[in-house]
Automatic annotation (TrEMBL):
Protein's name in the database: LisH domain-containing protein ARMC9
Coiled coil start-end: 203-230
Subunit structure: Interacts with TOGARAM1, CCDC66, CEP104, CSPP1 and CEP290. Interacts with NDUFAF2.
InterPro entries registered for this protein in UniProt: ARM-like (IPR011989), ARM-type_fold (IPR016024), ARMC9 (IPR040369), ARMC9_ARM_dom (IPR048959), ARMC9_CTLH-like_dom (IPR056327), ARMC9_LisH (IPR048957), LisH (IPR006594)
Lineage per the UniProt record: Eukaryota, Metazoa, Chordata, Craniata, Vertebrata
GO biological process, one term: cilium assembly
Main location: cytoplasm
Location of the ARMC9 CTLH-like domain: 57-188
Subcellular location: Cytoplasm, Cytoskeleton, Cilium basal body; Cytoplasm, Cytoskeleton, Microtubule organizing center, Centrosome, Centriole
Ranges of residues in domain LisH: 452-571
Amino acid sequence: MGDILAHESELLGLVKEYLDFAEFEDTLKTFSKECKMKGKALPKTARRSLRDSKSSIIQKDLIAAFDDGAQKVFFDLWEEHIPSSIRDGDSFAQKLEFYLHIHFAIYLLKRSVRRPDKEELDERISYFKTYLESKGAALSQTTEFLPFYALPFVPNPMVHPSFKELFQDSWSPELKLKLEKFLALIFKASNTPKLLTLYKENGQSHKEMLQQLHQQLLEAERRSMTYLKRYNKIQADYHNLIGVTAELVDSLEATVSGKMITPEYLQSVCIRLFSNQMRQSLAHSVDFTRPGTASTMLRASLAPMKLKDVPLLPSLDYEKLKRDLILGSDRLKAFLLQALRWRLTTSLPGEQRETVLQAYISNDLLDCHGHSQRSVLQLLHGRSDVVRQYMARLINAIASLAEGRLYLAQSTKVLRMLEERLKEEDKDVITRENVLGALQKFSLRRPLQTAMIQDGLIFWLIDILKEPDCLSDYTLEYSVALLMNLCLRSAGKNMCASVAGLVLKVLSDLLGHENHEIQPYVNGALYSILSIPSVREEARAMGMEDILRCFMKEGNAEMVRQIEFIIKQLNSEEFPDGGVESDDDEDEDDEEDHDTMEADLDKDELIQPQLGELSGEKLLTTEYLGIMTNTGKTRRKGMAGVQWGGDEPLRRPVTPSGHRHGYPALEDHPVSPQISQHARNRCLQSPPTAHLPVCQAGEPGASEPCVSTSCNNTGSTWGHFGAADF
């Protein structure tokens, strides 16, 4: 009670101020009378009078500027005293501001008796034009305002029928009346009583806290899904390792009787495969001299780690999904594209992920087989940067899976749209990364390789790789890997031969780049194009062997062996034999046997849901739940047992994600078990040095760093880009 008495006067003042603001005149009189009867002192309200006086002055200044045509004065006051939340969020305020800009643009035409000053009139029209191109662009789709976007370009708007209304005597007074009412309402709202302010601030703080907690929950869910993906990958790797080891142990045990490997050595090898906690007990309790003991123990260790049955995700109403992807708001489109991508990237490898992908394919989610002008694929060229990026991410995610590539490659429509987006996209780095990633994965399929080569994509790749330090790691790796895949074809080699000097210069510079992940692809591209005699001649003329030997001094053992193969190719006199590669057989499948979903697909999300807004799987299962029709699908089997030999340059198409995660590309010839073991252990390790120097021809000891001096990457138009442009 004491606290209330201490602040009683202030509390009574808050109540009185609110009643006065809300114009409860009778209630205020009764309240004041009762306070007086009880001896309660009410504070004076001079503060409100002062505020009212200031607001009145601002309103008068705005109206005076309107009458005088003082454009700059008016909009300076407008932006200073009208809250941005109202200017940008209130539809009436936006429309009023649009008409106010028209008023000032034509002010001289309406008020001048003589011919208006041309310079001043041009300045006003230019100011209006700038507004239309910036803030006023938001109303360009509104029928009411559409004709006024032509106003700056009409020589004499006074006689134009579309603008007849603007020059009537009643138009300006009506606009002024609307302005006065708006200002009265706004400044009355700005004199908010303290009681209402306290209520709003308290409610706002609670709202912000709930939003923060909601955001933390979303982040926690995302992290849990990431950790689950990592756990499943580690578990899958564990099973693969134990399975392979069991087979090896069976082979080793068979040689015990021949005294090729002693039981003691076999025992030490097998013990090293187990965890530290198991080593001591196994070493003392297991007799590894008994045939079959080691492999039995290894297989038995898999039993406790057996994966649980994974439930299938709920089916969706794809017709409704596609309809909203085409007709919905940009924000809804972005959230749907994000949710569909997450459903694919966060699903568990195996039946769950395959079922998700098959549902997308069977329902033609991206309208790859449709012929309508309005299709989901058109989102790749939408006006919203976020929608374009999220569409590119989804296509890249689908292209990460072999069945997804097969779906996207049914026609060249998707390929052409991706090429157009890659050529046009110069603002959003992540959009370009995902488009490039999808194209690189497309290059695992021969018909699409052919189309990309014919479209001149090799020239575009060479052009951007001239400045590798201006590219992100993802763009650099996937660009070089795509170039290598295209260079493996005869048509690609011949295209490189037309600009051999430039291609060799770019590839030799890339050999010394600090990103060592690109080295296998650079080596593969070099090895491939050097099968062309004219390219070999150009390489010898520029001293390529000396440059390569310079890198041999700095590289590791595998790098050295690969460069030796390249030098051997450089010094050969053989002519290319098209029959060896069956290069013209479009039916041959260059697909890898592994599906790899890289983590970059979900990096740096642009949108986050607001409080109460659905996203991700919750959005799909709440708004788009369909009839349960999910069925599993048997995975097609790839070519088993064919591995890439780490000693040789890559000679079959590969993706950076698959190669980085230890999934070797197919090789032309069988390789020894030792080389296969190197491939499983990622034999292509990075050299210990940083950015290596590129030696000048004939000067093995020269040290001249390859550092770009300009980062002005301008995309080239492939359709008209040939050897002459270099």
